Amino acid sequence: MATVMQKIKDIEDEMAKTQKNKATAHHLGLLKAKLAKLRRELLTPTTKGGGGAGEGFDVTKSGDARVGLVGFPSVGKSTLLNKLTGTFSEVASYEFTTLTCIPGVITYRGAKIQLLDLPGIIEGAKDGKGRGRQVISTARTCNCILIVLDAIKPITHKRLIEKELEGFGIRLNKEPPNLTFRKKEKGGINFTSTVANTHLDLETVKAICSEYKIHNADVTLRFDATADDLIDVIEGSRIYTPCIYVVNKIDQITLEELEILDKLPHYCPVSAHLEWNLDGLLEMIWEYLNLTRIYTKPKGMNPDYEDPVILSSKRKTVEDFCFRIHKDMLKQFKYALVWGSSAKHKPQRVGKEHELEDEDVVQIIKKV
């Protein structure tokens, strides 16, 4: 472990000393690829000994979505969890109160959202310090991350936490890079781009590929990609997660300071202790999770508006809906009747590939 960490430090030092220009782009690309490989090595838990991930970290995923609270110690994550879910997570004014991962559940608009209070993150978590590996590997399973910041502490904490999460392959409020990477049997590295390129050239692409022992591949860019983007695609294990910056303890700052914070993107001001703007935070979590509520309608009865079936925005066809109710339902599926914004007329008869919209009503007609 120490040798890997030393190698990481040596590469980071070399990158810090290297001037960024066209002549050094190829060298920096190579260093970034080496760094990504070392981080992966460091953060993939070994199966030999070591007692696993530690108590409280293997939290079973429950509900319709999972939201993780990440932040430095004593920023008010436990208070926020207590107020939002009614789950008790120990609160104290000293640092490192929460040493295991505490789950709670919020029921909001018919959806059950699991909220995890992850132990206070410290600098160097991405390099295996503290309990960083467990914290961030649990954060990787979340559908949305809340970075909790203390309004009276420096805003630089935001950047430090982002750096830790990015080092672990979590990309916040970003889309996957629009580039195609395809390995092939022969023909060397073929590099094409549909846009003007300012960061990557053939030499840099070849250097990064050779670090991964890839000598034959087609690389196609559809935007001005960086070496980091190419490494992300080759690594293939990156998680793209929506993130909200929850600035807590706003009762301790002035209105002028609050207005400055208000200019931050993806930001939500709260006071967990005084329960200020918790409704606004829940509304924002709902928006970022982008869930779809579908109501069921049994034959000859009114729709059940109390208990919707919750689908993700990426998987919301009638087939996905059937699968959420029961995996055998598709075997008996004949067609569905849909009322709502996805239907052209009310009701519309549809097949299993029909895409549903939020608050549609669905009746499944089975084969006789």
Describe the structure.
InterPro entries: Beta-grasp_dom_sf, DRG, G_OBG, GTP-bd, GTP-binding_2, GTP1-OBG_CS, P-loop_NTPase, Small_GTP-bd. Pfam families: MMR_HSR1, MMR_HSR1_Xtn, TGS. Residues 65-290 form the OBG-type G domain. This is Developmentally-regulated G-protein 3. It comes from Ambrosia artemisiifolia. Strands 2-3-1-4-10-11 form a six-stranded mixed beta sheet, with helices on both faces. The longest helix has 19 residues, at 25-43. The model is unreliable at 46-56 and 92-99 (pLDDT under 50). The chain has helices at residues 2-17, 25-43, 77-85, 132-139, 156-167, 202-211, 227-235, 255-261, 278-289, 318-325, 329-332; strands at 65-70, 102-108, 111-117, 144-150, 170-172, 179-183, 189-193, 217-221, 239-241, 243-248, 267-269, 291-296, 304-312, 333-339, 348-350, 360-366. The chain has eleven helices and 16 strands. α2 packs parallel to α6, α2 (25-43) runs parallel beside α7 and α6 (202-211) packs parallel to α7 (227-235). By secondary structure, it is of the alpha/beta class. It has three domains: 2-47 and 177-235, no CATH class; 65-174 and 239-289, Rossmann fold (3-Layer(aba) Sandwich); 291-366, Roll (Ubiquitin-like (UB roll)).
